[in-house]
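In this supplementary section we document a worked example of the pipeline. Step one takes a protein sequence of length 182 as its only input; no multiple sequence alignment statistics are reported here. Step two produces a three-dimensional model, which step three serialises into structure tokens for compact storage. The input and output of this example are shown verbatim.
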Amino acid sequence: MKSTTIARNYAEALFLAGEARGGGAVERYGQLMDAVAGAIAADERIAVALDSPRVSKSAKAALLARALAGAAEPEFVRFLQAVVRRGRQGLFAEIAQEYQGLVDVKLDRVHAGVTLREEPDARLEQQIVERLARAIGKDVRAYFRADDAILGGVVVRVGDRIYDGSVRRRLATLRRKMLAGA
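The serialised model returned by step three reads:
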């Protein structure tokens, strides 16, 4: 729990820096933070170098500066270097996650997991996203997956809420009603 609080504090500091900079920096910093966290997760050598007590903090800061030269704003690189100087580089993934949560709140955006029986085409994806946006009243980022176990219909997960319009659930409900009446 403590690491989440610390990550949230760093994310808030980066978010405020992005807002102060303006010009789309808030979203840009989020993309960069995701890229840094993804690179660390994808390449064990990066994670080992950043976590190793044998590598000095100044060497880690220089490594970040070289790796992000030309790809990231100097303010963003300085933020990462500050995180490393405080020995919190193990929190980059959590900081990225917390940061995206702040961006979602600012942009009035939600993420939805959408399960269908078959992979949807682009037109169906767009229709589902538009309907969800109207129903929820927010910008929706949908992530689609196929699962033939639902038999048909759609299951949508937004945060901790599940909207189950699957044929499987409808059949189970019908079965319960029929058995209760018998």
